[in-house]
Specification:
about 90 residues; alpha+beta; Hypothetical Cytosolic Protein, Chain: A; three-stranded antiparallel β-sheet; two-stranded antiparallel sheet; 3 helices; 5 strands; about 25% strand; globular; binds zinc ion
């Protein structure tokens, strides 16, 4: 039997590799807007986070998203992401 290939991505918060569908994609659009990509289909450069606001806080503290996207990310963007990520917990 061949093992099924599961795409693994690394969370920019805790640094753990996890199956892609367990993570949330954060996407930076061509216009430089940073959003949570809950559908996984938004165009742009992506980074991955666990569905955990704790990981977002870690990424925020270490400025990992800034590094991923090579741009400054204002506090209000982080606050919005945190709110959206917290809201995404309910579907579990
Ligand atoms: Zn994580």
């Amino acid at each position: 039997m061949q093992p099924k290939k599961i795409p693994i991505r690394r969370c920019v918060g805790c640094g753990e590799g996890k199956p892609k569908k367990e993570l949330v994609r954060v996407v930076r659009s061509a216009a430089g807007e940073v959003n949570l990509d809950l559908t996984g289909r938004m165009p742009g450069r992506g980074a991955y986070l666990c569905r955990d606001t704790e990981c977002l806080r870690k990424a925020r503290k270490a400025r990992r998203l800034e590094k991923e996207f090579s741009q400054a990310i204002p506090d209000e963007v982080y606050d919005r992401l945190e709110k959206e990520l917290g809201g995404a917990d309910h579907e579990q």
